[in-house]
Write a structure and sequence with these properties.
Number of strands: 10
Strand content: 5-15%
Structural class: alpha/beta
Radius of gyration: 39 Å
Length: 609
């Protein structure tokens, strides 16, 4: 919290000064009421008494005026200070959260993370409010009242102090003991939010599988658990309120019992009764809400704790202090003894040694789960290798900044997720300084103009959350337009045409051919017909490179896995196509023969005529 407060510390000091001053005045004011009633009960010239009473009323009015002024200053300072700090805390949380690793987000619910960021700022508001408007005034009043009453009667002052100490200790200990249950309530709340976000995100899947009842029951189980935990903590709060009610009544009885005895002995005046009653009402009012205050403080602590855990969690992948900017001149990529394990147990890549020449176009193929996508994620430093190195242009990517690395790599993913922003903003994401003309040109090269012309607002059309208003193929074209606009020396295509129909694929392939010129290109593809023109095809299986070469070289090997995949997929398809073509040719020849015979017969008939 202090990181967010630092820039607003002078507003905080003004706030604290004003609140302390106002509450000291609140303790001083009843002293004048004591004098008022002491004078009122004296005998003497009524005009003089009235004059003295009027002066006291004027002093009280002045004090109330300062009380009002200090609280107005405190309110202004609090508004300025809290809103600025809450914005700062949200920004700090976002900046740190968004830089966590790919695996971190893969293991976290989006809804829960959003909830944590928002609750972190709200927790600060809650804690700040209670500390400023509840605990600080209470502390000032208890100390000030004790000092004032001490000058009147030390035994009454001691009774007030002991009562306040018992009251505060009881509530603090109880609230601290209850903290574990408050934390559990916060955790269940995050679980509830995560479940809700997950099912809403997958609403279409729920509908397709007719799982409304199952998901409703699942959410009911979560909310019932939340209600049970919340009910338990609220019942505990009720027990505390009952206890503090008893302490308040007991305090009032004991205090006035002793006060009457001292008055009877002439040790205190009537005005002291008024003073004690004013202080007692004030203290009971402040202390009555203390349990709720402590409970809310611990609840705020519990709410903040989840986000603080993320803020204290070191980034899995971070730049070294000595990291340099990656400068790519030729785009040479080398993988040296590269290995990667998931969770230190599941081996995905095993001792990969591979060099990709500048401007070379290579394809990665292999069965599902062979490690192709992981290969790319390691190149982009979304994961860190278990062992080995990745070298680009002579520089180990672990020694360069992540930002400079990713600026030099343009990627077209298989599953493109867009921002709920305009098409122009989504395409322009490839280059923050892109002009409208550059965005339009990139869109045209990616053949986005085919569908943009039918949209109500063209490039200014909002695409919906995750780009839901566009088809899969249209989203993929947007991703290609981004890559064109980014104009990076290294290009990665992960099934870049998988969501396109045959016509669109042909158009996009033309755009990709232009995009791949003079760029080091890595293509992942399951449709082998799209990679025949690659300079080199690298086959990965069980985390190892088992063969590599051109299409013709690999297809000529009898024991080649690539040949088996080609025969099963592309080869079989082409054979069927060849058979259909032969049948069509035979039918065409038969039709031509029949036409010739008809024509000859027609000519014969014409000559006979």
């Amino acid at each position: 919290f202090w990181r967010g407060i630092k820039s607003q510390k002078w507003w905080l000091f003004l706030l604290l000064f004003s609140v302390i001053s106002a509450n000291i005045i609140a303790v001083i004011t009843p002293i004048f009421y004591k004098q008022f009633f002491d004078i009122l009960t004296t005998t003497g010239d009524k005009s003089i008494v009235a004059k003295n009473l009027l002066m006291i009323v004027i002093y009280i009015a002045i004090l109330n005026g300062f009380f009002w002024l200090f609280y107005r200053i405190a309110t202004l300072a609090n508004i300025t200070y809290q809103t600025a700090v809450m914005a700062k805390l949200k920004q700090q949380s976002y900046d740190y959260l968004i830089q966590h690793s790919h695996s971190f987000f893969g293991n976290s619910f989006t809804g829960s993370l959003v909830q944590r960021v928002n609750r972190f700022a709200r927790a600060f508001e809650r804690l700040s409010d209670h500390l400023t408007w509840d605990l600080l005034p209470l502390t000032v009043k208890v100390i000030s009242i004790f000092i004032v009453v001490l000058f009147i009667n030390k035994w009454i002052a001691l009774i007030i102090l002991i009562w306040a100490a018992i009251f505060l200790t009881f509530n603090t200990v109880f609230s601290k003991w209850k903290l574990k249950y408050d934390i559990k309530v916060a955790e269940i709340d995050s679980k509830s939010t995560g479940y809700l976000a997950d099912t809403i995100t997958n609403q279409n899947t729920v509908a397709l599988f007719d799982s409304f009842k199952d998901e409703s029951n699942g959410y009911k189980n979560v909310t019932d658990e939340q209600a049970k935990s919340t009910r338990f903590t609220w019942n505990l709060g009720s027990i505390v309120e009952a206890g503090q009610g008893f302490l308040s009544f007991a305090m009032e009885f004991i205090l006035f019992f002793f006060a009457i005895r001292y008055w009877e002995e002439g040790l205190i005046t009537v005005g002291v009764f008024v003073l004690l009653q004013a202080y007692l009402i004030n203290l009971i009012h402040e202390l009555w809400g203390f349990t709720r205050t402590v409970r809310d403080i611990y609840q705020g602590y519990a709410d903040a704790k989840e986000m603080v855990e993320i803020l204290l969690l070191p980034h899995e992948i971070k730049d070294k202090l000595t990291a340099k900017e990656l400068l790519v001149n030729n785009g040479e990529i080398e993988f040296r003894n590269l290995s990667f394990n998931f969770n230190e147990t599941r081996k995905v890549l095993d001792n990969i040694n591979l060099k990709i020449k500048p401007g070379e176009k290579v394809a990665l193929i292999g069965p599902s789960g062979a490690g192709k996508t992981t290969f790319i994620k390691l190149l982009l430093r979304l994961y860190s290798p278990t062992s080995g190195e990745i070298i680009i242009n002579g520089m180990d990517i672990s020694n360069v900044t992540q930002g400079s690395l990713r600026k030099n790599i343009a990627m077209v993913p298989q599953d493109t997720i867009l921002f709920h922003r305009t098409l122009a903003e989504n395409i322009g994401y490839g280059k923050s300084t892109a002009t409208k003309e550059e965005i339009e040109k990139a869109a045209k090269l990616a053949h986005c103009d085919d569908f943009i012309k039918d949209l109500p607002y063209g490039l200014e059309t909002y695409v919906g959350e995750r780009g839901i208003k566009l088809s899969g193929g249209e989203r993929q074209r947007v991703a290609i337009a981004r890559a064109i606009l980014k104009n990076a020396p290294i290009l990665v295509l992960d099934e870049a045409t998988s969501s396109l129909d045959s016509r669109s694929e042909g158009l996009i392939q033309d755009a990709l051919d232009i995009l791949m010129v003079n760029r080091t290109t890595i293509v992942i593809a399951h449709r082998l017909s799209t990679i025949r023109k690659m300079d080199r095809i690298i086959v990965i299986d069980n985390g190892k490179v088992i063969e590599q070469g051109s299409h013709n070289e690999l297809i000529s090997r009898d024991d080649s896995l690539y040949k088996k995949l080609w025969t099963f997929q592309a080869g079989g398809f082409l054979a069927d196509a060849d058979n259909e073509l032969d049948n069509e040719k035979k039918e065409d020849n038969n039709e031509e023969t029949e036409d010739d015979e008809d024509e000859n017969r027609g000519e014969a008939k014409l000559s006979n005529f």
